[in-house]
Automatic annotation (TrEMBL):
Residues 105-126 are annotated as: Disordered. Pfam families: Cupin_2. Signal peptide: none annotated. It comes from the Bacteria. The lineage of its organism: Bacteria, Bacillati, Actinomycetota, Actinomycetes, Kitasatosporales. It comes from Streptomyces polygonati. This is Cupin domain-containing protein.
Length: 126
């Protein structure tokens, strides 16, 4: 939600990424309507999961991200986006530390249908 009592300021993604080191932990940097704009640092392989009710947008800020899909992988570099359609099983993976931005409805669980120890609530940085 936008707080109209705060002065208007731009969000610097690089500055927000510098505030944390933990990987695979989403951080909320903004909201738009009923959506969260989240960033994360990732390395290694996540978990295979689906989001039955929503699409999920990934934008690579730095590094390389592979979105593994059952019918073929999508490799993203800086400035590239991919939208995983709702209900499609996927597993993000990064060989080196990669910074990503995600756009999805507020309340979307990062591990989708899989749950487990990597499930995290987004940490607000907005």
């Amino acid at each position: 939600m936008t707080d109209i009592t705060k002065p208007a300021t731009a969000v610097n993604i690089e500055a927000k990424l510098a505030l944390f080191a933990e990987q695979w932990a989403p951080h909320r940097i903004a909201g738009i309507n009923d959506y969260d704009v989240k960033i994360a640092k990732v390395q290694g392989e996540f978990v295979w999961h689906t989001h039955e009710a929503t699409d999920e947008l990934f934008l690579v800020v730095s590094g390389l991200l592979t979105i593994q899909l059952r019918d073929g992988d999508v490799v993203l570099g800086p400035g590239e986006i991919y939208v995983v359609p709702k209900g499609v099983e996927h597993c993000p993976r990064a060989e080196e530390e990669t910074a990503i931005l995600m756009l999805e409805p507020a309340g979307t669980v990062n591990t989708g249908s899989a749950g487990g120890p990597r499930t995290r609530e987004p940490v607000p940085l907005d």
